[in-house]
Amino acid sequence: MDERNLAGCRVLVVEDDYSIAAALAEELADQTAIVIGPAPSVERALKLVDEAARLDLAVLDVNLRGEEVYPVADVLAERGIPFVLVTGYDRHTIRARYLQECILEKPVGTAAVLSALRRLPR
Fold first, then answer.
1. Which of 43, 55, 82, 100 has the fewest CB atoms inside 10 Å of its own CB, making it the most exposed?
2. Domain of residue 108, CATH code
3. pLDDT in tens for each of the 122 residues of the chain?
4. How many distinct structural domains can be found in the chain?
5. What domain range includes position 107?
6. Can you tell me which residues the record assigns to a coiled coil (predicted)?
7. Is residue 23 part of a domain?
8. Residue 2 falls within a domain, yes or no?
């Protein structure tokens, strides 16, 4: 299992639960990654994607207060930016297009998310 360093990686965090988003952002910063966000909504996430000069990786919570994150996933996929999907629902609820992506089921710790990010292709 190849786990790369996250130092200097620009990581978009899309998560509507403040405590989860803050913990993940803190852990990423401890790894000297550059955190973009966190974004609690699709609208905010899309704005951050548009404004970012560069994005390397992303963590996307599938359900943002009833709003699905797929518009953000679509843009990232089009741009070739790898991402991890995090969901509190069963895997079968993930859109077929994204079943090949890294999917983590909640509850998931930040260590598991960081490990998944390190394994993404860059």
1. 100
2. 3.40.50.2300
3. 456 899 999 999 999 999 999 999 999 999 999 999 999 999 999 999 999 999 999 999 999 999 999 999 999 999 999 999 999 998 889 999 999 999 999 999 999 999 999 999 98
4. 1
5. 10-119
6. none
7. yes
8. no
